[in-house]
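Input.
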Amino acid sequence: MERPLSVLVALVLMSFCEGWDAPGFCHGQTCPEYRLVQKTQDFEERLYVATSWITTTIKTNNGLGVMAANSKLKNYCKKHNHAGQDVPIRVDTWPALLTINQEGSLSWFIPPGTMPDITDESIRLETRPEATVYVRVFGGTPDLKSGNDAAKELRDALTKAGKTYDLLTFSGAAYDLYFSVDHHNEVWIYAV
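Output.
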């Protein structure tokens, strides 16, 4: 399955515990594990387990920058797997994550037990600790404007609910191919 070309923001994690059923929006693919802590009309509060990701920096803050970062990760995985590495990198996991802070980055989830050796200096392996994440779901083809709008709506809802959260960073998750008819997108903001 191809990764989305344009992704908006995010963070999500994978199943380390037996019995966890990934939600339908993961489309039967490996997906990070979380526990739903609270659900309101405006957002969900989720506790994600620790996860690993391969990540690259987005050079330009627009759709072309996201597409270039996506191609970089895809090409790296193809080269890694073609070279017959002991631990192949799966490219059929979800979500693809775009993080917006001082610099943008695009990340692909790495399932447990598939920790690759990173040989490309423009790609880094990130381990994200267990974390509480506030999530707002939105539909439509993901783009930077819809992601920024969803992040503003989520921040407003969190402030109204009295939650404390990271003011400078948001992430989002895209779970569908760019050209899919329906899209499940999420904007994520970490609790502090």
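The CA atoms of residues 114 and 187 lie 26 Å apart.
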